Amino acid sequence: xxxxxxxxxxxxxxxxxxxxxxxxxxxxxxxxxxxxxxxxxxxxxxxxxxxxxxxxxxxxxxxxxxxxxxxxxxxxxxxxxxxxxxxxxxxxxxxxxxxxxxxxxxxxxxxxxxxxxxxxxxxxxxxxxxxxxxxxxxxxxxxxxxxxxxxxxxxxxxxxxxxxxxxxxxxxxxxxxxxxxxxxxxxxxxxxxxxxxxxxxxxxxxxxxxxxxxxxxxxxxxxxxxxxxxxxxxxxxxxxxxxxxxxxxxxxxxxxxxxxxxxxxxxxxxxxxxxxxxxxxx
Length: 282
Fold this sequence. Notes:
By secondary structure, the chain is of the alpha+beta class. The protein has two domains: 5-156, Class II aldolase/adducin N-terminal domain (L-fuculose-1-phosphate Aldolase, 3-Layer(aba) Sandwich), CATH 3.40.225; 159-278, Class II aldolase/adducin N-terminal domain (L-fuculose-1-phosphate Aldolase, 3-Layer(aba) Sandwich), CATH 3.40.225. Helix content is 43%, strand content 16%. Strand 4 and strand 5 (115-120) form a beta hairpin.
């Protein structure tokens, strides 16, 4: 147990300054900047979480139980003892880009997976609390832990091009939207050979959207939320952003080609097969 407030403050500082985490903070800042520049993170839109458990010893993790704890309505027993870095609720990506440490919090899962301890960089005033999409993030992370996945990062953005695409009835299904994406951009076949998942409009922040999202992520690296945005998983913040960027590029090509009043031709099935055969295992 940590005996004094000074010890708590010292350990908090050590936590945020841990050398091994500096590349992650750097990547998150860059990703947040890109999201803001793309227009995918208006006001406090967008959120992320990273499983950092592997960076800490059991002794270090046990010390986190001395921080303030919060009961949680959900239960995630497979995440007990796991530590996450999570974007704060109400925080802006443009602010995270400048100073990520002041707009995120560490979240340590305890008890039966229905309590978490929060550690943030504010020693005075209101603490930074985790994103309102926390249920979805933890549901995804629990599946990743259960399946021993190498993916540790969950990234959500209001990808403008995908929100616009899912406003069109012709593309409001997984089959239709994947056919379009594969046809618009060769990179989809190379880096997302399984395509993307698709969830018909569901209220964000609910258990239902969390359940539907992990169904989609069982066979995809990204899932589109109809009229809302997209969520991706990967082993790094950089790659999680790249996934969203590739999907957005395919949608943007469609809209640019459609400006002239004609339906884009798209890559043909034999051309898509040729791409995959020429770059196996890309």
